[in-house]
C-alpha cells in the first residue's frame, strides 16, 4: 500500500523538523521570545 510509504515519509519529515528546531535554534527562539 502506498499509504504506509506516505505515512513513513511524513513521520520522517516531522522528526527531521523536530530535530532541526529542538537542537540549538530552540535556545535562540526562547531568548527571542523572552526579549519580546
Walk me through the structure.
By secondary structure, this protein is mainly α. It has helices at 2-22, 25-35. The N and C termini lie far apart (47 Å). The model has no long low-confidence stretch (mean pLDDT 79).
List keywords for this structure.
0% strand, 2 helices, mainly alpha, 36 residues
Beta-strand proportion: under 5%
User: Structural class of the secondary elements?
Assistant: mainly alpha
Main sheet record = none
Q: State the low-pLDDT regions, or none.
A: none
Principal-axis shape equals rod-shaped
State the separation between the terminal residues, measured CA to CA.
47 Å
Query: How many strands appear in the DSSP assignment?
Result: 0
Count up the helices: 2
Strand-helix topology:
Blueprint: H1 2-22, H2 25-35
Question: How would you summarize this macromolecular structure in one to three sentences?
Answer:
The protein is an all-alpha fold. 89% of the residues lie in helices and 0% in strands.
Amino acid at each position: 500500500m502506498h499509504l504506509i510509504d506516505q505515512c513513513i515519509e511524513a513521520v520522517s519529515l516531522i522528526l527531521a523538523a523536530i530535530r532541526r528546531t529542538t537542537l540549538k535554534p530552540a535556545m535562540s527562539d526562547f531568548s527571542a521570545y523572552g526579549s519580546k
